[in-house]
Amino acid sequence: MTLRPAGENTGIVFVRTDVAGASGAGVCVRADARKVSDTTLSTSLAENGVQVATVEHLMSALWGMGIDNLVVELNNEEVPIMDGSAAPFIYLIKSVGVVEQRAPRQFIRITREIEVTQGDAVASLKPYDGFRADYVFVADHPVYNRYPKRTSLDFGRDSYEQQVSRARSFGLIKELEQAQAINRCLGSSLENAVGIDDFDVLNPEGLRYQDEFVKHKLLDAIGDLYLLGRPLLASFHGFKSGHALNNKLARAVARCEDAWEITTVGDADAVSGVRFPVPAQI
Predict the structure, then answer these.
(1) Domain 2-281 has what CATH class?
(2) CB of 59 within 8 A of CB of 223?
(3) What is the pLDDT along the chain (282 residues), one digit of tens a residue?
(4) Are the beta carbons of 59 and 224 closer than 8 angstroms?
(5) Where in the chain are the domains?
(6) Model's pTM, two decimal places?
(7) Which residues are tagged catalytic?
(8) Which of 82, 110, 221, 267 is 20 to 30 A from 42 via CA?
Protein backbone atom coordinates (compact mmCIF):
# COMPACT_ATOMS: atom_id res chain seq x y z
CA MET A 1 0.00 0.00 0.00
CA THR A 2 1.18 3.49 -0.88
CA LEU A 3 -0.43 6.69 0.40
CA ARG A 4 -0.10 9.64 -1.98
CA PRO A 5 -1.04 13.32 -1.70
CA ALA A 6 -4.25 14.46 -3.37
CA GLY A 7 -5.60 17.88 -4.28
CA GLU A 8 -8.41 19.76 -2.58
CA ASN A 9 -11.87 18.17 -2.84
CA THR A 10 -10.44 14.85 -4.05
CA GLY A 11 -11.68 12.89 -1.07
CA ILE A 12 -10.27 9.46 -0.23
CA VAL A 13 -9.73 7.36 -3.35
CA PHE A 14 -8.42 3.79 -3.49
CA VAL A 15 -6.58 2.74 -6.64
CA ARG A 16 -6.05 -0.94 -7.47
CA THR A 17 -2.74 -0.78 -9.34
CA ASP A 18 -2.88 -4.52 -10.04
CA VAL A 19 -6.03 -4.12 -12.16
CA ALA A 20 -5.85 -2.31 -15.49
CA GLY A 21 -8.68 0.10 -16.23
CA ALA A 22 -9.89 1.35 -19.60
CA SER A 23 -7.01 3.83 -19.82
CA GLY A 24 -4.45 1.24 -18.80
CA ALA A 25 -4.03 2.80 -15.36
CA GLY A 26 -5.31 1.30 -12.13
CA VAL A 27 -9.00 1.15 -11.28
CA CYS A 28 -10.32 3.74 -8.82
CA VAL A 29 -12.70 2.87 -5.98
CA ARG A 30 -13.98 5.86 -4.02
CA ALA A 31 -14.38 5.75 -0.25
CA ASP A 32 -18.15 6.11 -0.29
CA ALA A 33 -20.71 4.53 2.05
CA ARG A 34 -22.96 3.87 -0.94
CA LYS A 35 -20.24 1.72 -2.54
CA VAL A 36 -19.98 -0.71 0.38
CA SER A 37 -20.31 -4.17 -1.14
CA ASP A 38 -19.71 -6.53 1.79
CA THR A 39 -19.82 -6.21 5.57
CA THR A 40 -18.93 -9.77 6.58
CA LEU A 41 -16.41 -9.31 9.44
CA SER A 42 -15.02 -6.20 7.70
CA THR A 43 -16.06 -3.44 5.31
CA SER A 44 -15.41 -3.79 1.58
CA LEU A 45 -15.99 -1.31 -1.25
CA ALA A 46 -16.65 -2.07 -4.90
CA GLU A 47 -16.75 0.07 -8.03
CA ASN A 48 -16.45 -0.78 -11.70
CA GLY A 49 -16.43 -4.47 -10.80
CA VAL A 50 -13.33 -4.05 -8.60
CA GLN A 51 -13.28 -4.53 -4.83
CA VAL A 52 -11.19 -3.11 -1.99
CA ALA A 53 -11.52 -5.00 1.30
CA THR A 54 -11.02 -4.20 4.99
CA VAL A 55 -10.98 -0.41 4.69
CA GLU A 56 -12.37 0.43 8.14
CA HIS A 57 -9.13 0.63 10.15
CA LEU A 58 -7.42 2.91 7.63
CA MET A 59 -10.54 5.07 7.29
CA SER A 60 -10.71 5.36 11.07
CA ALA A 61 -7.05 6.45 11.21
CA LEU A 62 -7.65 9.03 8.46
CA TRP A 63 -10.56 10.45 10.45
CA GLY A 64 -8.36 10.59 13.53
CA MET A 65 -5.62 12.43 11.63
CA GLY A 66 -7.97 14.84 9.88
CA ILE A 67 -7.06 13.61 6.40
CA ASP A 68 -9.67 14.61 3.81
CA ASN A 69 -7.83 14.13 0.53
CA LEU A 70 -5.72 11.08 -0.24
CA VAL A 71 -4.94 8.50 -2.91
CA VAL A 72 -4.44 5.00 -1.53
CA GLU A 73 -2.69 2.69 -3.99
CA LEU A 74 -3.02 -1.05 -3.45
CA ASN A 75 -1.46 -3.89 -5.42
CA ASN A 76 -4.00 -6.37 -4.06
CA GLU A 77 -7.61 -6.45 -2.93
CA GLU A 78 -7.15 -5.98 0.80
CA VAL A 79 -5.80 -3.09 2.84
CA PRO A 80 -2.89 -4.47 4.93
CA ILE A 81 -4.10 -5.55 8.36
CA MET A 82 -0.92 -4.29 10.12
CA ASP A 83 -1.36 -5.08 13.84
CA GLY A 84 -5.16 -5.16 13.66
CA SER A 85 -5.61 -1.56 14.82
CA ALA A 86 -5.39 1.96 13.38
CA ALA A 87 -2.19 2.89 15.24
CA PRO A 88 0.38 1.80 12.58
CA PHE A 89 -1.36 3.94 9.95
CA ILE A 90 -1.25 6.95 12.27
CA TYR A 91 2.44 6.33 12.99
CA LEU A 92 3.30 6.19 9.29
CA ILE A 93 1.28 9.31 8.47
CA LYS A 94 2.90 11.24 11.31
CA SER A 95 6.32 10.09 10.13
CA VAL A 96 5.93 11.91 6.79
CA GLY A 97 3.64 14.70 7.97
CA VAL A 98 0.52 16.30 6.55
CA VAL A 99 -0.04 19.42 4.48
CA GLU A 100 -2.78 21.90 5.26
CA GLN A 101 -4.83 22.91 2.26
CA ARG A 102 -6.57 26.19 1.54
CA ALA A 103 -10.15 25.05 1.02
CA PRO A 104 -12.32 25.28 4.15
CA ARG A 105 -12.98 21.93 5.76
CA GLN A 106 -16.55 20.69 5.44
CA PHE A 107 -18.52 18.84 8.12
CA ILE A 108 -21.85 17.04 8.13
CA ARG A 109 -23.86 18.61 10.95
CA ILE A 110 -26.68 16.33 12.09
CA THR A 111 -29.82 18.43 12.73
CA ARG A 112 -32.27 15.72 13.83
CA GLU A 113 -31.94 12.19 15.17
CA ILE A 114 -31.37 9.34 12.73
CA GLU A 115 -31.66 5.79 14.07
CA VAL A 116 -31.40 2.39 12.41
CA THR A 117 -31.91 -1.05 13.91
CA GLN A 118 -31.18 -4.66 13.08
CA GLY A 119 -32.81 -7.08 15.48
CA ASP A 120 -31.93 -5.71 18.91
CA ALA A 121 -28.87 -3.82 17.64
CA VAL A 122 -29.11 -0.04 17.35
CA ALA A 123 -27.02 2.71 15.77
CA SER A 124 -27.99 6.37 15.90
CA LEU A 125 -26.82 9.93 15.42
CA LYS A 126 -28.16 12.96 17.28
CA PRO A 127 -27.37 16.69 17.01
CA TYR A 128 -24.27 17.71 18.97
CA ASP A 129 -21.75 20.55 18.79
CA GLY A 130 -18.66 18.42 18.17
CA PHE A 131 -18.30 14.66 17.91
CA ARG A 132 -19.19 12.42 20.80
CA ALA A 133 -19.51 8.65 20.67
CA ASP A 134 -20.60 5.90 22.99
CA TYR A 135 -20.74 2.20 22.28
CA VAL A 136 -22.09 -0.83 24.10
CA PHE A 137 -20.50 -4.19 23.29
CA VAL A 138 -22.79 -7.16 23.88
CA ALA A 139 -21.27 -10.64 24.22
CA ASP A 140 -21.83 -13.24 26.90
CA HIS A 141 -18.51 -15.03 27.31
CA PRO A 142 -16.35 -15.66 30.41
CA VAL A 143 -13.46 -13.59 29.03
CA TYR A 144 -15.52 -10.71 27.65
CA ASN A 145 -17.46 -10.56 30.91
CA ARG A 146 -14.28 -9.66 32.81
CA TYR A 147 -13.78 -6.42 30.92
CA PRO A 148 -15.75 -3.18 30.41
CA LYS A 149 -18.37 -3.39 27.68
CA ARG A 150 -19.22 0.29 27.35
CA THR A 151 -17.15 3.29 26.34
CA SER A 152 -18.09 6.94 25.99
CA LEU A 153 -15.77 9.58 24.56
CA ASP A 154 -16.07 13.22 23.56
CA PHE A 155 -13.42 13.95 20.96
CA GLY A 156 -13.39 17.62 21.84
CA ARG A 157 -11.40 16.61 24.91
CA ASP A 158 -10.53 12.93 24.42
CA SER A 159 -7.69 11.87 22.14
CA TYR A 160 -8.54 9.37 19.41
CA GLU A 161 -4.86 8.52 18.98
CA GLN A 162 -4.23 7.83 22.65
CA GLN A 163 -7.54 6.30 23.71
CA VAL A 164 -8.88 4.48 20.63
CA SER A 165 -6.38 3.97 17.81
CA ARG A 166 -4.42 1.10 19.42
CA ALA A 167 -7.46 -1.13 19.98
CA ARG A 168 -7.04 -4.33 17.94
CA SER A 169 -9.37 -6.70 16.17
CA PHE A 170 -10.31 -9.65 18.36
CA GLY A 171 -12.07 -12.97 18.18
CA LEU A 172 -12.66 -16.35 19.69
CA ILE A 173 -10.23 -19.02 18.52
CA LYS A 174 -13.09 -21.51 18.19
CA GLU A 175 -14.76 -19.21 15.62
CA LEU A 176 -11.65 -18.81 13.45
CA GLU A 177 -12.19 -21.98 11.41
CA GLN A 178 -15.70 -20.86 10.51
CA ALA A 179 -14.45 -17.45 9.39
CA GLN A 180 -11.68 -18.97 7.29
CA ALA A 181 -14.22 -21.27 5.62
CA ILE A 182 -15.75 -18.15 4.03
CA ASN A 183 -12.32 -16.71 3.11
CA ARG A 184 -12.13 -14.31 6.04
CA CYS A 185 -9.34 -13.92 8.61
CA LEU A 186 -7.02 -16.10 6.53
CA GLY A 187 -3.93 -14.36 7.86
CA SER A 188 -5.10 -13.98 11.44
CA SER A 189 -2.48 -14.46 14.14
CA LEU A 190 -1.66 -13.08 17.56
CA GLU A 191 0.46 -10.46 15.76
CA ASN A 192 -2.60 -8.82 14.20
CA ALA A 193 -5.50 -9.69 16.51
CA VAL A 194 -6.41 -10.46 20.08
CA GLY A 195 -7.08 -14.19 20.35
CA ILE A 196 -9.43 -15.52 23.01
CA ASP A 197 -9.98 -19.11 24.13
CA ASP A 198 -12.55 -20.36 26.62
CA PHE A 199 -10.66 -18.95 29.58
CA ASP A 200 -8.34 -16.07 28.74
CA VAL A 201 -6.67 -13.70 26.28
CA LEU A 202 -3.97 -15.66 24.44
CA ASN A 203 -1.66 -12.76 23.53
CA PRO A 204 1.36 -12.83 25.87
CA GLU A 205 1.30 -9.04 26.26
CA GLY A 206 -2.38 -9.00 27.21
CA LEU A 207 -4.69 -6.13 26.30
CA ARG A 208 -3.58 -2.62 25.37
CA TYR A 209 -6.60 -1.06 27.08
CA GLN A 210 -8.74 -2.55 29.82
CA ASP A 211 -11.68 -1.86 27.52
CA GLU A 212 -9.91 -2.79 24.26
CA PHE A 213 -12.77 -4.93 22.96
CA VAL A 214 -15.40 -2.21 23.07
CA LYS A 215 -12.96 0.44 21.89
CA HIS A 216 -12.16 -1.57 18.79
CA LYS A 217 -15.86 -1.73 17.99
CA LEU A 218 -15.94 2.06 18.26
CA LEU A 219 -12.82 2.34 16.08
CA ASP A 220 -14.61 0.31 13.41
CA ALA A 221 -17.73 2.46 13.63
CA ILE A 222 -15.74 5.66 13.20
CA GLY A 223 -14.09 4.24 10.08
CA ASP A 224 -17.39 3.03 8.66
CA LEU A 225 -19.05 6.43 9.22
CA TYR A 226 -16.13 8.33 7.66
CA LEU A 227 -17.17 6.72 4.38
CA LEU A 228 -19.74 9.53 4.29
CA GLY A 229 -16.85 11.61 2.95
CA ARG A 230 -16.88 14.28 5.66
CA PRO A 231 -16.49 14.23 9.45
CA LEU A 232 -19.67 14.38 11.48
CA LEU A 233 -20.81 16.96 14.00
CA ALA A 234 -23.04 14.63 15.97
CA SER A 235 -23.43 12.30 18.92
CA PHE A 236 -23.11 8.65 17.88
CA HIS A 237 -24.58 5.76 19.83
CA GLY A 238 -23.98 2.13 18.99
CA PHE A 239 -25.53 -0.82 20.78
CA LYS A 240 -24.27 -4.14 19.44
CA SER A 241 -23.79 -2.57 16.01
CA GLY A 242 -21.34 -4.01 13.49
CA HIS A 243 -20.21 -3.12 9.99
CA ALA A 244 -23.60 -3.86 8.40
CA LEU A 245 -25.54 -1.63 10.79
CA ASN A 246 -22.88 1.09 10.69
CA ASN A 247 -23.24 1.18 6.91
CA LYS A 248 -27.01 1.16 7.19
CA LEU A 249 -26.72 4.27 9.38
CA ALA A 250 -24.34 5.98 6.94
CA ARG A 251 -26.69 5.23 4.04
CA ALA A 252 -29.62 6.59 6.06
CA VAL A 253 -27.71 9.84 6.55
CA ALA A 254 -27.01 10.09 2.83
CA ARG A 255 -30.68 9.42 2.08
CA CYS A 256 -32.26 11.71 4.71
CA GLU A 257 -31.15 15.07 3.40
CA ASP A 258 -33.53 16.89 5.77
CA ALA A 259 -31.60 15.54 8.77
CA TRP A 260 -28.27 17.26 8.18
CA GLU A 261 -26.51 20.21 6.64
CA ILE A 262 -23.03 20.90 5.33
CA THR A 263 -21.07 23.39 7.36
CA THR A 264 -17.53 24.65 6.95
CA VAL A 265 -14.85 25.63 9.41
CA GLY A 266 -15.91 29.25 9.06
CA ASP A 267 -19.26 28.29 10.55
CA ALA A 268 -17.97 25.63 12.93
CA ASP A 269 -14.68 26.95 14.29
CA ALA A 270 -16.25 27.85 17.62
CA VAL A 271 -17.81 24.43 18.02
CA SER A 272 -16.28 22.22 20.68
CA GLY A 273 -14.86 19.03 19.26
CA VAL A 274 -13.78 20.45 15.91
CA ARG A 275 -10.25 19.20 16.25
CA PHE A 276 -9.02 19.62 12.66
CA PRO A 277 -9.65 23.15 11.34
CA VAL A 278 -8.39 22.64 7.79
CA PRO A 279 -8.49 19.84 5.25
CA ALA A 280 -5.17 18.08 4.93
CA GLN A 281 -3.28 15.71 2.70
CA ILE A 282 -0.24 13.57 3.43
Answers:
(1) alpha beta
(2) yes
(3) 999 999 999 999 999 999 987 666 789 999 999 999 999 999 999 998 999 999 999 999 999 999 999 999 999 999 999 999 999 999 999 999 999 999 999 999 999 999 999 999 999 999 999 999 999 999 999 999 999 999 999 999 999 999 999 999 999 998 888 878 877 777 889 999 999 999 999 999 999 999 999 999 999 999 999 999 999 999 999 999 999 999 999 999 999 999 999 999 655 443 434 444 445 566
(4) yes
(5) 2-281
(6) 0.93
(7) 243
(8) 110
